[in-house]
Amino acid sequence: MIDSLNDMDWNEVWKSRTKENRESSPGRDCARIWESRESALSFWNMCRQERSRIDKTVWETDITDESRVLDIGAGPGTLAIPFAQKAAHVTTVEPAEGMCSVMQEKMAEFGVKNITIVQKRWEEVDVVKDLQAPYDVVIASFSLGMQDIRAAIEKMQQASSKYVYLYHFAGETSWDRQWQELWPRLHGRAYLPGPKCDVLYNVLYQMGIYPHIRTFRLEHNQRYSNLDEAISALAPQAQAESEEQKAILGEYLRGALREEDGALLMPGSSIRVKMWWEKDLS
């Protein structure tokens, strides 16, 4: 048993689980889900409700006013904007048009001018041609949707002069359970979640990277003014396009949402993992 585990290629395990996830929910790609400005703005507002978590992430990242930061899968600038307020410069890599649009709006709103946006997938980025590497800090926060995670991390190592920070999930999340319940009813097939931090750690270990690890639970509620708003917000993620599918989604949400202060809340929770290391320059 031990020999077989030692012989296992954990990057292939990551690839296999990512492939299963994508095949069980084809088209449910992060860049597509957040392509519209409305969905990206909704994501920004949801993250602002987790402000303490965002602040903690920034405080715990080893940066100074002279640091240069690379934020991979930056979304609407949830981390990039507070990083830019603390560091010398931030480069973001974000493929979704809606996310980039909202990020630019928020940069103007907060008076932030030291962010460069690279609108590409990380897999498509050429470190030499597209970036101004190296960066003191490279961070990918809950944005590890790459098929070949080893190649993605090798590129992060190439772009970093000092630190790499990765945030990912441990165990089953509340939305994993949500889609596992809904997917057969909406699409007639099982929903298979993507790989979690156990696989990620083993990939790093096989690369000779032995990261610091911190695990924490996050409780979060998504607020909607009414049921129709909730259906509209979740329909793209659920790939609910027909009226019949939206009716199924609405039936599920009636049972899942709870009323609070005149609004409807979708309770959520997940166990999250921070892995970080200082690049070995020897």
Task: Give the helix/strand layout.
Blueprint: H1 2-7, H2 10-24, H3 30-33, H4 37-48, H5 51-59, E1 68-72, H6 80-84, E2 89-93, H7 97-109, E3 115-118, H8 127-130, E4 135-141, H9 149-159, E5 160-170, H10 174-187, H11 197-206, E6 212-224, H12 227-238, H13 243-256, E7 258-260, E8 263-278
Parallel strand pairs: 1-2, 1-4, 2-3, 4-5
Antiparallel strand pairs: 5-8, 6-8, 7-8
Helix pairs in contact: 2-11, 4-7, 10-13, 12-13
Account of the protein in words:
This protein is an alpha/beta fold and 282 residues long. It has a single domain, classed as Rossmann fold, CATH 3.40.50. Helix content is 46%, strand content 23%. It is built from 13 helices and 8 strands. Strands 1, 2, 3, 4, 5, 6, 7 and 8 form an 8-stranded mixed sheet that branches. Helix 2 packs antiparallel against helix 11 and helix 10 runs antiparallel to helix 13. The longest helix is centred in the first third of the chain and has 15 residues. It is globular. The mean pLDDT is 91.
Give a quick precis of the structure.
The chain is an alpha/beta fold and 282 residues long.
Q: What brief labels describe this structure?
A:
single chain; 282 residues; alpha/beta; Rossmann fold; eight-stranded mixed sheet; globular
